[in-house]
């Protein structure tokens, strides 16, 4: 008869090592997805149309896959999935992933992932409106603006950024994430204004801008709100340089 | 035998260690640095900024309704925004919100012509661009002029505020604006004390611009347009400075009143039109003679032209009288005879002198029944002809006169003509050699003989002319024979010539200096004029009297007669002789009379 103790020892050892190996391999694999994500974003930021790369990240990072990850990794995975979906133009996927991520019990309050997940709905709205605006020939009439772009569009996006996303930021939030947050708010204001000033009738532009100023809580034009965001970004931040590179200068008094 | 507990402990430790490594791996992965997308901008930041700026409540009037930028494309709006920023920067406005620059732009919208198709290539935009450009050039070299209340800054404001629809209609006005504003910067910018009032500056500068635009517009060919533009570039500072000086000298004139009714003489539009009309007539008057003008001479002449018009606006601008005056006078100064007497430098000054005299004597120099008559032009011609060899003889009186003295002669003559035009010029202006004026001057010049320097210098000749004019104008029909152009038929000539011959022949002691000779003429001409019969009878009473007086001075009355009392002696002796109360051939009577005169001298 075989030695039962030896058998027990071997079995336990194999089981434990297998479990560790499986979990470790999954994590290592996930790290590879993170690498792919970084490469996609770098290409995206460089202005190249690398939507397919974001799509590949999305294909790899399915909800099933995320469920198999260590619970601690899941918020980050949802964040990556939502960001990739945002950039790939899969708006519903992005919003759903954001919601899932925010529901993860292991999400650390004030973390990068937390702030970004809260920003995603606003960023998705912005991208969606951009697509519509381009398809519409970069111009629109006043009624179109009110229906599609204003209340359910930029106002909603601004409220998302001013409310939940802003509230996600706390003392633990890395400074570069705060910079990113304000950069995106600056960008949203610019895009909102770009749409407003593309309304066909100048009289409507004036009115729409007046309403936007009310939402943004500035008096004269939205650029003053944008400037407030710029002032929140650290001078050493790459986002500060990026804004300058776009030709930004404070609004004239 | 292996201790099973020890083996299990080893296994559990391995598993725990593996789990710890795993947890570290997970934590590190979860917090791993990631790159985040920056996202897209819908439009260029500058364009959005520009359009948002124009959509501000306080600027909305620029892009709505009939606002100047209402129909602008995006690119045009961006350009307009940059222009506005630049304008504001140059204006260095004290007001917040670029209010002043915005107001200037909005002012452009007043003009119907620019509402349609108002864009970066429109005349208005070009003019504004030019204004900014020329301002930048000026401020770059005059940084001190960028003060909030500087004259240069106010110049830009008043210039833009003064633009009218006509300016925009004229395609070349942008270039004209450059020249006029450039000249204004150079003259008024550096001299803020000149024409301190902005309203006056506006009518001045814009009046000049209007005229120039009109002048260039009317030029028949591109070459002619270019020539006129080039001329203004050369003398523009002088014209502006001249206008400014005229404004300063005539404080009560060229004073626009903002509350004036349309059509009132002091309405800004009327004052501006007056400046413009004056310059237009001035430019037309000197057409073809532009080469003789410099900035300095243009300044002198335009100042006088404006001064004359300021005093007599309606009369001089009506029927182009100012233009005709300048034209005909300049022609007289530069025609064949004129060119021999008047130097290039003196032409402008004499023209200026003429304008001054005209301005002060319009009532005598312009006959309402014959406004076309150019009396001062006729005066110039008469003057030039009277000193030509044909009338003045071979004495080359002209050589005696410096340019300054020729100008002084013109001044004397202009003043006399302005006071006595009927007597000195009469009705037959065409035959100017037979005018009293020509005959008087020619009589004086020819009577001095072939060597006039023995009797007078240039200044002395001018004095003789002044004396002759004074005397002759009161007795012209007797002293002058206007039936012929020959001055030797004039009693005036004969009287002076006899005096000259007698002095040259009989002054052994050399007591008749040039000064004494002039006094001699001054004293004897009125006596002759009042006692003409002996001269009409062909007697040489003047010559004889002087010779006898000089003989006494060299003989029995040597100790009594000198250069000081000789003119008085001659005057009184001549009076007695011409009246027939003294016979020069009676030595005792002559000596007695002379002693008596000297005792009372």
Summarize the entry for a quick read.
The complex is a heterodimer of chains A (253) and B (601). Chain A has 253 residues and is mainly α. Helices cover 76% and strands 0% of the residues of chain A.
Q: Can you describe this structure?
A:
The complex is a heterodimer of chains A (253) and B (601). Chain A has 253 residues and is mostly helical. Chain A contains 11 helices and no strands. Chain A has 2 domains: 1-90; 108-253. Chain A has helices spanning 4-45, 51-60, 63-68, 74-88, 91-103, 112-135, 142-168, 175-196, 202-216, 223-232, 238-245. The longest helix of chain A is centred in the N-terminal third of the chain and has 42 residues, at 4-45. The model of chain A has no long low-confidence stretch (mean pLDDT 90). With 601 residues, chain B is an all-alpha fold. Chain B has 4 domains: 46-161, no CATH class; 196-311, no CATH class; 318-449 and 457-486, no CATH class; 490-601, no CATH class. In chain B, 66% of the residues lie in helices and 0% in strands. Chain B is built from 31 helices and no strands. Chain B has helices at residues 4-30, 45-54, 74-91, 99-108, 123-141, 151-161, 165-169, 173-189, 198-218, 222-249, 268-285, 295-311, 313-317, 321-334, 336-341, 344-360, 362-365, 375-386, 389-392, 397-400, 403-419, 421-425, 436-447, 458-472, 476-479, 491-506, 514-530, 533-536, 541-553, 566-578, 587-600. Chains A and B meet through helix 1, helix 4, helix 6, helix 8 and helix 9 of A and helix 1 and helix 2 of B.
């Amino acid at each position: 008869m075989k030695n039962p103790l030896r058998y027990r020892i071997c079995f336990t050892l194999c089981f434990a090592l297998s479990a560790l190996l499986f979990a470790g391999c999954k994590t290592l694999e996930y790290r590879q997805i993170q690498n792919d994500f970084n490469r996609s974003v770098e290409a995206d930021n460089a202005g190249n149309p690398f939507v397919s790369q974001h799509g590949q990240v999305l294909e790899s990072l399915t909800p099933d896959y995320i469920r198999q990850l260590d619970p601690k990794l899941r918020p980050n995975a949802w964040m990556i999935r939502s960001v990739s979906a945002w950039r790939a133009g899969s708006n519903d996927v992005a919003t759903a992933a954001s919601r899932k991520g925010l529901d993860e019990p292991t999400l650390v309050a004030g973390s990068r992932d937390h702030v970004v997940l809260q920003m995603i709905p606003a960023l998705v709205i912005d991208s969606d409106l951009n697509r519509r605006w381009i398809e519409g020939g970069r111009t629109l009439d006043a009624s179109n603006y009110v229906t599609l772009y204003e209340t359910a569009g930029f106002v909603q996006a601004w409220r998302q950024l001013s409310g939940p996303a802003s509230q996600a930021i706390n003392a633990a939030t890395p400074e570069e994430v705060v910079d990113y947050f304000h950069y995106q708010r600056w960008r949203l204001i610019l895009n909102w204004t770009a749409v407003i000033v593309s309304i066909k009738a100048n009289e409507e532009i004036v009115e729409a801008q007046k309403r936007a100023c009310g939402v943004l809580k500035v008096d004269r034009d939205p650029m003053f709100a944008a400037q407030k965001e710029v002032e929140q970004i650290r001078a050493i931040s790459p986002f500060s340089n990026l804004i300058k590179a776009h030709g930004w200068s404070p609004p004239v008094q | 035998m292996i201790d099973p507990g020890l083996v299990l402990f080893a296994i559990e430790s391995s598993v725990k260690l593996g789990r710890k490594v795993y947890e570290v791996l997970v934590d590190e992965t979860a917090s791993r640095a990631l790159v985040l997308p920056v996202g897209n901008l819908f439009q260029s930041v500058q364009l959005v900024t520009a359009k948002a700026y124009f959509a501000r409540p306080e600027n909305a009037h620029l892009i709505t309704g009939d606002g100047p930028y209402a129909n602008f494309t995006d690119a045009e709006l961006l350009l307009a925004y940059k222009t506005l920023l630049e304008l504001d920067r140059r204006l260095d406005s004290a007001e917040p919100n670029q209010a002043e620059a915005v107001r200037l732009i909005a002012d452009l919208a007043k003009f119907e012509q620019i509402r349609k198709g108002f864009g970066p290539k429109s005349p208005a935009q070009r003019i504004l661009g030019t204004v900014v450009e020329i301002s930048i050039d000026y401020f770059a070299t005059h940084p001190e002029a960028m003060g909030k209340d500087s004259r240069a800054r106010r110049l830009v404001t008043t210039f833009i505020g003064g633009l009218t629809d006509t300016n925009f209609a004229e395609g070349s006005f942008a270039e004209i604006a450059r020249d006029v504003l450039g000249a204004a910067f150079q003259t008024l910018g550096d001299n803020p004390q000149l024409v301190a009032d902005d309203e006056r500056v506006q009518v001045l500068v814009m009046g000049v611009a209007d005229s120039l635009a009109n002048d260039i517009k009317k030029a028949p060919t591109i070459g002619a347009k270019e020539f006129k533009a080039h001329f203004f570039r050369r003398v523009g500072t002088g014209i502006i400075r001249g206008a400014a000086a005229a404004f300063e000298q005539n404080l009560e004139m060229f004073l626009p009143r903002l509350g004036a009714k349309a059509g009132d003489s002091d309405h800004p539009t009327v004052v501006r039109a007056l400046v413009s009309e004056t310059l237009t007539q001035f430019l037309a008057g000197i057409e073809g003679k532009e080469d003789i003008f410099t900035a300095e001479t243009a300044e002198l002449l335009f100042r006088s032209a404006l001064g004359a018009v300021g005093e007599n606006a309606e009369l001089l601008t009506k029927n182009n009288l100012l233009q005709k005056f300048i034209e005909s006078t300049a022609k007289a100064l530069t025609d064949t005879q004129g060119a021999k007497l008047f130097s290039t430098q003196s032409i402008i000054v004499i023209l200026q002198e003429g304008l001054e005299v005209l301005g002060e004597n319009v009532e005598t120099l312009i006959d309402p029944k014959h406004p076309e008559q150019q009396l001062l032009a006729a005066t110039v011609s008469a003057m030039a002809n009277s000193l030509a060899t044909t009338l003045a003889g071979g004495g080359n009186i002209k050589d005696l006169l410096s340019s300054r003295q020729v100008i002084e002669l013109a001044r004397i003559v202009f003043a006399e003509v302005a006071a006595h035009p009927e007597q000195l010029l009469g009705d037959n202006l065409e035959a100017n050699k037979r005018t009293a004026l020509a005959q008087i001057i020619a009589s004086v010049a020819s009577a001095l003989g072939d060597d006039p320097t023995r009797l007078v210098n240039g200044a002395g000749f001018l004095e003789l002319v002044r004396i002759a004019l004074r005397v002759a104008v009161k007795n012209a029909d007797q002293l002058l024979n206007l039936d012929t152009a020959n001055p030797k038929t004039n009693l005036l000539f004969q009287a002076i010539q006899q005096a000259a011959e007698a002095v040259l022949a009989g002054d052994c002691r050399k007591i008749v200096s040039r000064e004494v000779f002039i006094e001699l003429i001054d004293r004897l001409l009125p006596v002759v004029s009042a006692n003409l019969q002996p001269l009409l009878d062909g007697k040489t009473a003047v010559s004889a009297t002087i010779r006898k007086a000089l003989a006494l001075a060299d003989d029995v009355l040597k100790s009594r007669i000198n250069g000081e009392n000789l003119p008085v002696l001659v005057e009184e002796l001549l009076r007695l002789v011409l009246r027939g109360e003294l016979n020069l051939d009676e030595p005792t009577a002559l000596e007695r009379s002379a002693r008596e005169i000297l005792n009372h001298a």
